[in-house]
Design brief:
By secondary structure, the protein is mostly beta strands. The chain has one helix spanning 17-25, and strands at 2-6, 9-13, 64-66, 76-79, 97-105, 115-121, 124-131, 141-149, 155-163, 178-185, 207-213.
Amino acid sequence: MAVAVWGGVVLERSVSVAAAARAAEAPPAGPSQPRVRLRPVPPATPTPPPSPTPTPTPRATVNLAFVTPPEWPGCVVCNFRWINPPAYEFLSILHPTHVVWAVTNGGPSSVFGPIDFALLLDGKRFLTARYDNPTALLPGAALGLHLEVRVTALGRHTLSVDIDPDGRIAETDESDNLCAFVGVWTAESISGLPQPTRDGVAAGPLLVVDLGRR
């Protein structure tokens, strides 16, 4: 029991033993500590890998184009026989058609690898001939090519040759890859001339002649 005197009056207050003990054991009050609020940390976003640098497209440095050699009537000539220089004399569906054409490399670099040529009759492709190009076509060099084919349709037709018809060779100019010949095929026969092969098949191998530099 605690006794206190206030203004001459004795005051008494009971204090439990347990409360007194807790008060004795409690540490002295100190300054209040600030409350810290913890917030969840979001997961780290993975850094994307750097984008690869695009590889620039190689610049074309070759240009295959038709050329008309001296004394040739055109860049493509058809005839019933092979003569030199080529000339258009006569054509018949009963005999092979000799097709000759000349090409050059007008670019500053050499052309390596095979070169394909498509033959078209009235715009329809019927045969593809491949030149293996074993020694490369140098800048300014020209070639003469000769192939026997069969034309079975009577009348007036356009026979065209298309250089690299599938676009395998990158060129500086793709607009000069087509040359055409216009002629009339008859049903007349000349004694002693060979008969043509079946449709769409060359009668012989592709013959190539070096025409020198142009």
